[in-house]
């Protein structure tokens, strides 16, 4: 009977291969269905995590957290030092002002992900309230055209200066 390539691997190589397969499955599970269908046949893939405008903040964070938790379970030495920066980069354009503000005001190297998430949830409420306020304001405001007519009455000073 002929041995397969897998059987020829050393134990540590088999273990690494198993971890790689688990990591790929973790990434596949975190992808939206359209993206999964696009990349599942590739042997290797590099995928940037992003949160779409249509996706809620909570669902985006849940996906991000699932990936991080899976990576930590695969590798106990997995470092989470860049998670804050990566999550900020994944946010949609409507969050750009808050991302810039956070990058300028905080030291991202020591900012905890939980602290960032709490801060962003407060900002999400502000965005939602602004959206509601702008919709109701647009409905209530009607356009008005004002016309001003300036007439100049003749005064006694005008008649004296002309003569």
Describe the structure.
This protein is an all-alpha fold. It has 2 domains: 47 residues; 73 residues, no CATH class. The protein is 63% helix and 0% strand. Helix 2 runs antiparallel to helix 4. It starts with a helix and ends with a helix. 4% of the residues are buried. It comes from Tanacetum coccineum. This is UBN2 domain-containing protein.
Task: Map the helices and strands.
Blueprint: H1 5-8, H2 11-30, H3 33-39, H4 57-74, H5 83-90, H6 96-105, H7 113-140, H8 156-162
List keywords for this structure.
single chain; 163 residues; mainly alpha; 2 domains; UBN2 domain-containing protein
What is the count of β-strands?
0
Distance between the termini: 126 Å
Q: What's the pLDDT, averaged over the residues?
A: 77
Q: Count of helical segments?
A: 8
Structural class: mainly alpha
Radius of gyration: 30 Å
Helix content: 55-70%
Number of domains: 2
Order of helices and strands: HHHHHHHH
Regions with pLDDT < 50 over 5+ consecutive residues?
none
Shape: elongated
Q: Work out the strand percent.
A: under 5%
Protein name: UBN2 domain-containing protein
What is the structure about, briefly put?
The chain has 163 residues and is an all-alpha fold. It has helices at residues 5-8, 11-30, 33-39, 57-74, 83-90, 96-105, 113-140, 156-162.
